[in-house]
Amino acid sequence: MTLSVRGLSVSSLVRDVSFDIGAGERVGLIGESGSGKSLTALAIMGLLPEELRASGSIRLGDRELLGMSEKDLSRLRGDELAMVFQEPMTALNPAMRVGRQVTEPGRIHGRRHRAEDLLAAVGLPGTARAYPHQLSGGQRQRVVLAMALANEPSLLICDEPTTALDVTVQSQILTLIKTALSRESALLFITHDLAVVASVCERVLVMLDGEIVEAGSTREVLTAPSHAYTRKLLAASDLEARR
Q: Where do the ABC transporter domain residues begin and end (predicted)?
């Protein structure tokens, strides 16, 4: 199922953003903090703060998401649309065992999943009865990933999901995302880390001051960037030393 964004603007912070993500595509959205990446993701999910207004068009398949009622959006979230945030505790209930939390998306959408199976799939067997505070940051991120993948969403958005993790755990989470995501599921991976984009995504969008300034295959953009800002990002990354 294709995500099609056309002329998306969010107040004055995101301006005239357009891109497509086809079924099974892995697309990176890169840029520094404040460039509009997360606002773009929140607009797709219908989770913008009340004071911000989105205009343009966001279509998932044949359905227009902008202007869709909260009731209808709620039916899509956790089923066809799922998101993994940078800080997993924002998505976890500290007073609920993680086993119940990972099966909650399935229950909401009329599906039955075994918590043990979902947690084992992300490398956390035997943790169903644990509470979030009993797990490490990397383990909590795995729980959130299990929740997001439970219903095999048409689109998974990952917003800086590995930023707060050490390098070893980061690598494990990225491997899980690549291997556990359904072949039919599209991925929008938001990050400022070009090395992460290179390892996960086949296509990349570069965002600066609320606008897409460059887009193309990951290989093309990271080896022969056309925009000065992309060249600046590349020069500041570890990838430059490897070229």
A: 3-234
199 inside domain: yes
With contact defined as beta carbons under 8 Å apart, do 125 and 116 qualify? yes
In a domain, 195, yes or no: yes
Q: Which amino acid is at 170?
A: Q
Q: Cα separations (Å) of 93 from 77, 89, 143?
A: 17, 7, 12
Q: Helices 137-149 & 167-180, crossing angle to 10 degrees?
A: 10
Counting the structural domains of the chain, the total is: 1
- Which residue has tokens 């959130």? 144
Give the residue numbers spanning the domain of 40: 3-93+153-242
Both tokens of 144, joined, read: 């959130």
Mean pLDDT of the chain: 91
In a domain, 15, yes or no: yes
Distance separating alpha carbons of residues 162 and 137, to the nearest angstrom: 10
CATH code where residue 78 lies:
3.40.50.300
Q: What is the mean pLDDT of residues 151-164?
A: 89
pLDDT of the residue at 44: 97
- Alpha carbons 46 and 58: distance in angstroms, whole number: 10
